[in-house]
Amino acid sequence: MADSIQISGATRVYGIVGDPVVQVRSPAVYTARFAQEGIDAVLVPLHVHADRFDDAFPALLEIANLDGLLITAPFKKRACAFARQLGVAAKTVGAVNALRREADGSWTGDMFDGAGFVHGVEARGLSVSGRRTLLFGAGGAGSAIAAALAEAGVASISILDIDAERAGIVARNLSEAFPHTRAAGVSDARGEFDLIVNASPVGMSAGDGLPGNLGPLKKDVLVGDVVLSEEPTALIAHAQRFGCAWVNGKDMHTGQIESITSFFLTDR
């Protein structure tokens, strides 16, 4: 596939912005998809240090042949402010993981993390409906996944984050938007859960352990981890140890490729 991709001065550019970006797989995936669609475009990694984001990101958006951006940690909430228009999911969670340049030069943003996770679960023949959920992480990905899980019919969501206030805010927003789902911020991992999801940064670095003190798991617990990793994260390994069904970062990533590609290429 790489031999068929020709880059010229007319090639349109997309990027993925994060700190770090060495772990991302999106450049190869989306560049190949553009080629399959007959689109002269590539997607490249763009490492922006967190302490330089406010200076670097607005300048990045001024690059004339840049048509779209994927946004990864830790910028999903900060990037939201640069979109003139937001999709429904982005409005609900106050974060974006994709931005598209419009014909007038403005930017439209939306959030696909949550839908991608749910689609990844469904692709494995599983369902989240009716499950009691423990969610680690109340950032951009965590908020999006919480909203998508509520929309998909989980019974409850307990949110555990290093920032307890942030977890509480996400829980209150969920309760308002999805009154049929019980949502609360929690301070530990105790409770009866049959869906455990890690949407925190734990697992991104070699040697990371579990995102919380989980103990033994019942076999009917479904476990999900958003971290992209060649080897099972500590959480996925924990799930495998107890015979639990699981989905990983690759499943979530695959689940949102179609939606993001369509978003990027709308009206192009």
What is the CATH C-level name of the largest domain? Alpha Beta
User: Helix amount, in percent?
Assistant: 25-40%
CATH topology name of the largest domain, in short, is Rossmann fold
Number of helices: 8
Please state the structural category.
Answer: alpha/beta
Order of helices and strands: EHEHEEHEEHEHEHEEEHEH
| CA-based shape | globular
Strand order of the largest sheet: 2-1-3-5-6-4
Low-confidence stretches: none
Identify the CATH architecture of the largest domain.
3-Layer(aba) Sandwich
- How many domains, as an integer? 2
Distance between the termini: 23 Å
Strand fraction: 15-25%
Biggest pleated sheet:
6 strands, mixed
CATH superfamily of the largest domain: NAD(P)-binding Rossmann-like Domain
Total number of beta strands: 12
What value does the Rg take, in angstroms?
A: 18 Å
The overall average pLDDT, rounded, is: 93
What descriptors fit this protein?
268 residues; alpha/beta; Rossmann fold; 6-stranded mixed beta sheet; 6-stranded parallel beta sheet; 21% strand
Q: What does this protein look like?
A:
The protein is of the alpha/beta class and 268 residues long. The chain has two domains: 2-111, Leucine Dehydrogenase, chain A, domain 1 (Rossmann fold, 3-Layer(aba) Sandwich); 114-252, NAD(P)-binding Rossmann-like Domain (Rossmann fold). It has eight helices and twelve strands. It has helices spanning 26-36, 53-60, 88-93, 113-123, 140-151, 164-177, 234-241, 249-265; strands at 12-18, 41-47, 66-71, 85-86, 98-101, 107-110, 132-136, 156-160, 182-185, 195-198, 222-225, 245-247. The strands form two sheets. The protein has a six-stranded mixed β-sheet. Strands 9-8-7-10-11-12 form a six-stranded parallel β-sheet, sandwiched between helices. Helix 4 packs across helix 5 (140-151). The mean pLDDT is 93.
